[in-house]
Structures are given as structure tokens and as C-alpha cells.
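At this stage, I put together one protein's amino acid sequence and its C-alpha cells, which the following lines show:
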Amino acid sequence: MRALHLVHRSPFENNVLRCCVARAARGDSVLLLENAVYAALLDGAMAGVVADATKWLRMAVLIPDLEARGLAGVELLPDVEAIDYDGFVDLAVAYPVIVTWS
């Protein structure tokens, strides 16, 4: 069953993003929230992990969380979609299972 994975923690704080990607299935989506948005940065430390994951997962980042961290307008990895709250709701409705990683 397809799942939406919500990742909240910074990639510098723990290994939760790597664990999420390792356990996610093809067709799942990962939404980077709160401090996890740092993983979506083009020149970030997790760029390789996220870029590899976008080959088989849909990856998105929440725009208001980017803005709250002063990252509005910063270049994101090419296959990471920036979404607003309406996009978040659309994802939550589209997936029958939601898994929170913190």
C-alpha cells in the first residue's frame, strides 16, 4: 500500500531521513517538513541521498517551512517539488497510509 512519509528532523540531527528512504517503497512520497527541509538544498550534505531517492520516490518540501528558516528562493534539488499547505492536503488525501518520522 502506498504511503506518504513525513520527515521532520534535520538531516544533521539524526539518521531518520536515511531510514525513511531505506524503508519507503516505490510509489511512496516523502514530504520534508520543519528542519528536514535542509535535506532538499541543492548544495546540502544530503543532496546525494535525496537525489538518488527521487529516482523512485516523489520528494516534496513544504514552502512555509523553507520560508520560516530563511530559505525562500534558495535553489533546491531539481526533482524535489516545493509545495504549499494545499499541496500538503492533496498529498495527505492521495495516500491511504501516512508515516511520521521524527
